[in-house]
């Protein structure tokens, strides 16, 4: 095997991607499967998941899916066990599923949005935001470690956000504290799990065109608001995330753990 191929080798790895049917999760699944990993998607969108699994299978890639709500703890435990039973082990887990929990307190054009004002946020909306964007990461890591520790190691890659480091007024309020807590949790897990050969890192994307928040980054006003933050004049395409995902999941990333890696076209640099 050529040196470069060896460095980024993920062939045969057993991989789970939560929220793998769309956006960044799908990009993680594609780059891993394209390079010979065996990938299982967990997603609540069964139809969308079946479509992307069929597309990838057509390319000869080893991909399957399980319908799982990452907020459902017994279902998550069973889904992890099913992957371990099918693949014999679990090597790499992308804790990626996430949602925009609701409108922010500003519109993309800078007006106040009463639906996002703190006094109007429905408690269920706050709770669901924390459950999916924060608690599900804990549940995912817990189940991953249950399988990785006895096997002697693995990699966990969590999708956080630059919203962990700055405040976005057009994003639902619970998103920022959830992602900030995710960052801290990732570093805490890296401390606990390094001794067991388990590396834990976070990817902090800036704006990427995906289906989050109803795919609103495809709308002109939302897109312009985010584009104006980039130092290279554009927002992210899901293809842009693939190199970083492969790096963190492969031998090339062996010395990364507890890292919070920003990938945002320079947005954070402009804003801070
Ligand atoms: N797109 C961006 O600009 C951006 C920026 C920073 C961080 N992120 C983060 O990236 C991650 C992926 O988001 P995306 O932008 O690719 O969005 P997306 O909506 O395109 O994909 C998210 C996927 O997660 C699935 N999902 C949602 N809730 C779920 C649940 N309860 N259980 C299982 N699956 C569920 C959806 O069905 C979908 O397939 C999220 O954690 C998000 O917070 C996105």
TrEMBL record:
Give the molecular function GO annotations: oxidoreductase activity
* Keyword NADP recorded: yes
User: Which PANTHER family does this one have?
Assistant: 7-ALPHA-HYDROXYSTEROID DEHYDROGENASE, 7ALPHA-HYDROXYSTEROID DEHYDROGENASE
**Gene3D superfamilies noted in UniProt:** NAD(P)-binding Rossmann-like Domain
Which family does the record claim for this protein?
Belongs to the short-chain dehydrogenases/reductases (SDR) family.
Q: What is this protein called?
A: SDR family oxidoreductase
User: What organism is the protein native to?
Assistant: Pseudotabrizicola algicola
- Could you read off the lineage of the organism from its UniProt record? Bacteria, Pseudomonadati, Pseudomonadota, Alphaproteobacteria, Rhodobacterales
Which superkingdom heads the taxonomic lineage of this protein's source?
Bacteria
């Amino acid at each position: 095997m050529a040196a470069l191929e060896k460095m980024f080798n993920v062939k045969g790895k057993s991989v789970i991607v939560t929220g793998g049917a769309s956006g960044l999760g799908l990009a993680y699944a594609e780059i891993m499967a394209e390079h010979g990993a065996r990938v299982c998607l967990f997603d609540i969108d069964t139809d969308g998941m079946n479509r992307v699994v069929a597309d990838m299978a057509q390319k000869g890639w080893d991909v399957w899916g399980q319908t799982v709500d990452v907020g459902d703890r017994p279902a998550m435990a069973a889904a992890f066990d099913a992957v371990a039973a099918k693949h014999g082990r679990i090597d790499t887990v992308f804790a990626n599923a996430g949602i925009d929990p609701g409108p922010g307190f500003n519109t993309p054009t800078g007006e106040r949005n009463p639906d996002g004002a703190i006094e109007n946020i429905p408690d269920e909306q706050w709770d669901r935001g924390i459950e999916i964007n924060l608690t599900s990461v804990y549940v995912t890591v817990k189940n991953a470690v249950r399988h990785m520790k006895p096997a002697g190691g693995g990699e966990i890659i969590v999708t956080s956000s630059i919203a962990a480091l700055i405040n976005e007024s057009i994003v639902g309020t619970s998103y920022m504290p959830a992602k900030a807590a995710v960052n801290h949790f990732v570093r805490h897990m890296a401390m606990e799990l390094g001794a067991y050969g388990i590396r834990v890192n976070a990817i902090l994307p800036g704006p990427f065109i995906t289906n989050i928040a109803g795919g609103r980054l495809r709308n002109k006003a939302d897109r312009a608001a985010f584009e104006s933050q980039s130092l290279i004049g554009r927002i992210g395409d899901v293809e842009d995330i693939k190199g970083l995902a492969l790096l963190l999941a492969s031998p090339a990333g062996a010395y990364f753990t507890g890292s919070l890696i920003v990938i945002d076209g320079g947005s954070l640099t402009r804003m801070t």
